Amino acid sequence: MSKEKKDKKISFIADCMLGTLAKRLRIFGYDTLYYTKIDDGDLVKIADIQNRVILTRDIKLTERKLAKSFIVINSDILENQVIQIEEEFGISLHGLPKISRCLVCNTELVKATKKDVIGKVPPFVFLRHRNFTYCPECNKYYWPGTHYKNTEVQMKRKAD
Ligand SMILES: [Zn+2]
């Protein structure tokens, strides 16, 4: 295996039933596509074109010709799903989140300075944090802390 290939991170596409698992993968920096609504045919096509591993609860989906790389997730329970992925790929989805990828749209976050976030984050957040990141796709700011695990807070802020 070439170094380039070895260093290249694995990427995923999750089916409609695995939204929470998809979010967990994003929290840990893994490029994971997820659509609340997508045709099975389109899903396997995207996986094939973009070289993504399909994560699915639906064995029928894996019988499609374009479904070349996939994992059938055995459980409905998130923690079991997480453990299955960890064992399957030798990765860790526990511990400190990475904050490198937008939880909502999967875009890679860019660094933002304290100056950038003036007036964009709540005052207590501004005062307590130094490191911020930004999603250029949905104009959202992230910072280290529990909010990253709680997307609802983010969504609320977006509506302001
Ligand atoms: Zn985003």
Description:
- By secondary structure, the protein is of the alpha/beta class.
- It has two domains: 3-89, 3-Layer(aba) Sandwich (Rossmann fold), CATH 3.40.50; 110-159, no CATH class.
- It has helices spanning 3-7, 19-27, 40-50, 78-89, 123-128, 151-159, and strands at residues 12-14, 32-34, 53-56, 70-72, 110-112, 132-135, 140-142.
- The protein has a four-stranded parallel β-sheet with strand order 2-1-3-4, with helices on both faces.
- Strand 6 and strand 7 form a beta hairpin.
- The chain is elongated.
- Bound molecules: zinc ion.
- Residues 102, 104-105, 107, 135, 137-138, 140 line the site of zinc ion.
- Residues 102, 104-105, 107, 135, 137-138, 140 line the site of zinc ion (ZN).
Topology:
Layout: H1 3-7, E1 12-14, H2 19-27, E2 32-34, H3 40-50, E3 53-56, E4 70-72, H4 78-89, E5 110-112, H5 123-128, E6 132-135, E7 140-142, H6 151-159
Parallel strand pairs: 1-2, 1-3, 3-4
Antiparallel strand pairs: 5-6, 6-7
The structure holds zinc ion.
The site of zinc ion has 8 residues, from loops.
